[in-house]
Design a protein that fits this description.
Layout: E1 12-15, E2 20-23, E3 28-29, H1 35-43, H2 50-54, H3 61-71, E4 84-89, E5 95-96, H4 99-110, H5 115-120, E6 122-131, E7 134-138, H6 148-158, H7 167-180, H8 183-188, H9 196-201, H10 215-220, H11 222-237
Antiparallel strand pairs: 1-2, 2-3, 4-5, 4-6, 6-7
Bound molecules: zinc ion (2 copies).
Length: about 240
């Protein structure tokens, strides 16, 4: 039983606990009878054989799904599409990808009418699908790298960009805020009438005024800073 399994192509991932193989490229679990077809048709790989696959303990997708439903929520399967919020019926535990489907289900299966009453019988929870939008199951909450309040505060302070920072950017932002941290409150409290958040958010936006790019310069050198400030006022105000 502990024999070494024949190698799979790198994009195929075997989940022995669920008896399934999923394709990372196509982000879906593969029907156990269609794995070879999939590999040949979509990946033009002719080296995998039926004999290789026979060494793996593979269940039908329906059976794998049943197995998962019994122990859900499970940790998200990284090979599949990212978890998304779905709806679980509190009455029969069935899962639905959209609020519309959830409401349809509550009306048709449980004779509950009215959005408020329907929504009260559904729990929002992260779910994944084994294949397309079929074989839904619940997954555990994705781990949060930072408390949301902290993240929001940081990004507002610095206004580096409007987008949500990736973990890598967060690290950079943390370093930046350590560097420029002490000078920030001073700059923010300048009673010049200049809109500081706007000024801070475009350190690279004015190629003709390289001095603006240096935040410490703004705070520690009043002369050039105020000069720059008055120079840039019309541009910033428009
Ligand atoms: Zn594939
Ligand atoms: Zn139900």
């Amino acid at each position: 039983m502990s024999s070494i399994l024949p190698p799979l192509p790198p994009y195929l991932v075997y989940y022995p606990q669920y008896g399934l193989i999923a394709c990372a490229t196509h982000q879906q679990a593969l029907y156990e009878t269609k794995i070879l077809d999939h590999v040949i048709k979509f990946h033009h790989n002719l080296s995998l054989t039926e004999a290789d696959l026979a060494s793996y303990r593979l269940l039908s997708l329906a059976t794998s799904h049943h197995l998962i439903l019994e122990i859900q929520p499970i940790p998200p399967l990284p090979t599949l599409k990212l978890p998304q919020n779905g709806y679980q019926c509190k009455l029969c535990k069935s899962l639905h990808l959209s609020q519309r489907r959830s409401r349809d289900h509550l009306r048709e299966s449980h004779r509950i009418t009215g959005y408020t009453a329907q929504d009260a019988e559904a729990t929002i929870c992260p779910i994944q699908a084994l294949e397309g939008s079929a074989y839904l199951f619940r997954v555990t909450e994705p781990r949060l790298s930072l408390p949301t309040t902290l993240t929001r505060k940081r990004s507002r302070e610095l206004s580096l960009s409007g987008s949500v920072p990736s973990p890598g950017q967060r690290l950079k932002i943390a370093t930046l805020s350590q560097l420029v941290g002490p000078s920030q409150p001073a700059a923010l409290s300048q009673p010049t009438g200049l809109s500081q958040p706007t000024g801070l958010s475009q350190p690279t936006g004015s190629p003709s005024q390289p001095g603006l790019a240096s935040q410490p310069g703004l705070a520690s050198q009043p002369g050039p800073a105020s000069q720059l400030g008055s120079l840039s006022l019309p541009g910033l105000a428009s």
